[in-house]
Amino acid sequence: MARVVVEVMPKPEILDPQGKAVTGALKRLGFSGLSVRQGKRFEIEIEGEITPERIEQATKAADSLLANTTIENYVVRVDG
Amino acid sequence: MRVGVVTFPGSLDDIDAIRAVRLTGGEPVSLWHASDSLEGVDAVILPGGFSYGDYLRCGAIARFSPVMAEVIKQAKAGLPVLGICNGFQVLCEAHLLPGALIRNDRRTFYCKDQLLRVESTSTAWSNKFATEQEISIVIKHGEGNFQADPETVRMLEGTQRVVFRYLGENPNGSVNNIAGIANERGNVVGLMPHPEHNVDPAVSPGLDGVRFFASLTNYLTSLAEEA
Amino acid sequence: MTDTVANAKATPDVTQPWAELGLKADEYRSIREILRRRPTSCELAMYSVMWSEHCSYKSSKVHLARFAQLPKTTPRGPLLAGIGEQAGVVDIGNDWAVTFKVESHNHPSYVEPYQGAATGVGGIVRDILAMGARPIASMDSLRFGRLDAPDTARVLPGIVAGVGGYGNCLGLPNIGGEVVFDASYYGNPLVNALSVGVLKHGDLHLAFARGAGNKVILYGATTGGDGIGGASVLASETFDADGPAKRPSVQVGDPFTEKLLIECTLELFAAGVVNGIQDLGAAGISCATSELASAGDGGMHIDLDLVPLRDNTLTPEEILMSESQERMAAVVEPENLDRFFEICAKWDVLATVIGEVTEGDRLVIDWHGETVVDVDPHTVAHEGPVYQRPMARPDWLDALNADTTASLGRPGNGPELEEHFRRVVVSPNQCDKSWVTDQYDRYVRGNSVLSQPEDSGMLRIDEGTGLGIALATDCNARFTLLDPYVGAQLALAEAYRNVAATGAEPVAITDCLNFGSPEDPEVMWQFSQAIDGLIEGCKILGTPVTGGNVSFYNRTGETNIMPTPLVGMLGVIDNVADRVKSRFQNQGDAIVLLGETRNDLDGSAWAEVIHNHIGGNPPKPCLEAEQALAQVLLRASKERLLSSAHDLSDGGLAVALAESAMLSGFGARMKLPEDTFVALFSETPGRVLVSLPESKLSALSQLCGDLPHARLGTVTDDGALTITGQFAIAVSALRREWAATIPVALKTRPRSAR
Predict the structure, then answer these.
(1) pLDDT digits over B20-53, tens only?
(2) Which residues of B are known to be catalytic?
(3) If exposure means fewest CB atoms within 10 Å of the residue's CB, which of C273, C386, C525, C616 is most exposed?
(4) What is the architecture of the domain spanning B2-226?
(5) Domain tally for chain C?
(6) pTM score, whole prediction
(7) CA C597 to CA C619: how far, in whole Å?
(8) What residues of C are labeled active site?
(9) From C256, which residue of chain B is nearest by alpha-carbon distance?
(10) Which residues of chain C are within 8 Å of residue B202 when distances are taken between CB atoms?
(11) ipTM for this model
């Protein structure tokens, strides 16, 4: 089984309340100077070989479902 | 009977818990998350809400607040602690209770009047119920799906530490329909349902929540008598 | 290079993108006349957002002005604040006051349903907060395309999750609202969010900047690129086939920050350290600074470099236009600054002095040490363009009114009647809405006496005395399409009746006027008619309009939505223990219909569900009869005569009866008048179905006096709704089908791609 990873992050210009809250908590715990943005990681198992068509298929999946492209960016990459 | 109610940033049902303590004859004491003093209270309630927005995991950030260090210490020494909804999540993150609460299997927030069965009456917060008593308590949460590894679940079931179980519909996918559990000693109880919403005749769909607070009174009284 | 005032004077002939910012040529010309020079790009940004339809009400102003003729008095005394403030404030007695308002967030909710709806809730809550009130509850009126339309499966779950996600996290019970489906909302859903707050009379705060030397503080979230141009582009122009590339960035809500902002702001008010406060919503800093300065007695100087940014690449124009959520602006005297910052620190709320109130009357804004804005704030905030848009009664209306229900096929026998009954009850607009409302916390704060699906939401305000309020929102847009004047009055009458049915005295309204394009003369005619209908109706009922919101450009392509003037009615109840629920309570209770039934089937749910028909003339409202009915209901509630009371509206007696039974589990045995079909499906207003012990029938009859009332049946425990001589239907089976409509419709279709 080959694996494609899709990483979804809030767009840089979009508010990331989760990341903000985690940043604040880390600061209170003494981890200074860290700034966090929180995203999602999807691991997609693919049947058979990874071909350009498969990558495109995963990209379409990311674009239409996994990411909300109004507020999120995504990166598709082959794991390994 | 002085009962502390902790307010974390993002706590919501703190005022409800305070009212419920008052309506059931206790003296509520408001405790602030940033303080490390419990002000000598006889018991603590961790109320519902979205502490710190629940943004990392529910209860994960609240668990590190100064007040929790003291709650954890005193709970281990026997202080009665009730974690309601978000408070339950905080207790699990703090490892005062085993397991974790994950997203409802229906994937949406769910608010309803839920039937429960009382499975254990040997805790600080459930001793005034009859065993297997059926009660109706408000639930309202998006992440109330109790999960633990099979061994932990067997242990909880085998040691009568499952205190409340969902009856009828399982609203969130919890393993074995578990709605609430206790620690080994029975002084710490966490549950997803909200007993503080079932104590006030003017607004509550039922009054089954009263016995949670009566149980605490009973527990503290018997402790005092023993001492 | 920054376009400074000096630069603007030196380069008068620079071509500016006024059209792209939504300004018309003559609007741009008047900005140049006001300034006696060309605006800087920052000034252009400010004027363009503040003069947008959304912020300036330029098309509606002349019509809204007519609301001023209504007395500023409720049945409980004078209004403490009315139209023109951020929200109206009503005295409810015992030193308590209530402020409430409904606002639309329609277009953003189409683009990004979750965040659009969430930030809609957040915005109206800050309006309430800015009055000095503690927000205590929400309601939401939602309208979607047909339930079986593909995009509804995207928009509905997203909007509902957004409303719930934000409101639940704020700890505000959601106690009511509506969910309506109609093809005209496809591609343009309506999200009308209502917020209500409570305060003591002495705590009322109005927004203005006063006293030179006082500091202007921005507090709450940092400023980012959210919704730049959202107000002018999103809310003012139709969203249609522009494609994703042109979609402006949406606002993202952070309810946790808003919760802290609420607690922090209430503590600031209580400590007495703020002179004026304003929320930042549409048009962000542009709006807050110009409105605060304009309402005060001095000018204002702002140093834009001091605004804490989330994104350091923002230009000054963008900072001025940013619609980042969860921000407030306050005016604070220098000696109170320490205490102000101390309270903000307690709640972990970021607060920054960004300027001060000045002598004189100019709003001056600097960026990197140079002046980029120098304007009279009044010209920005209050002297926007005012349009007398052309109005025309639609040509198609006569034909529509002539196409009545008289020719539609009616059920010919008992089984057919039962079939129509069942189909109307389980249809999308009449079915169980708990799939939606179960996603909202209705219990938090512990004062929710009644919530959906009751006729109105009810909250206890004073634990000691039981003093409470009730709220209902209503609009039957099918009636408004057929006759906007009458339709608006019917919305008003229904909200009034819903409040009275629960035992509360209706006292005041807020409105949310959702219409199509104001550039369409037919839409402007509908708008004007609806306002006239509301004014005449409110005059009779004695309920002032305390404020509201206008949303134009609601259309998909060239198709305007049905005119939807939503009315939110506030009621007061002296003791919430007297509240009346809508469902049957006891077996053996008598079932009585209050009010007169006429042959009103045009525009009805029956015509829609059975014949997919809309046409004819809406029922004639009789507001005096509504008042008489309300009086009976209020006295009956006080004297504890009633077991239940349920308003008759969409679907008439059929739906009211079915709901009273299904929600209780009881059945009913009914003997209806000879024309059973009309008795069941007519939607004549001014009617309420009540149940009560037989022993109290004569007392009720005495209360009714001249008000028509008729015993129609008895509550039973046999689990069946029996219409004598026609049909009997099992309540549990009906309930199952009624509860399944929405879940089945949403599940049969996979969640569509965004």
Answers:
(1) 999 999 999 999 999 999 999 999 999 999 999 8
(2) 85, 194, 196
(3) C386
(4) 3-Layer(aba) Sandwich (3.40)
(5) 2
(6) 0.93
(7) 11
(8) 54, 105
(9) B53
(10) 449, 460, 466, 576-577
(11) 0.96
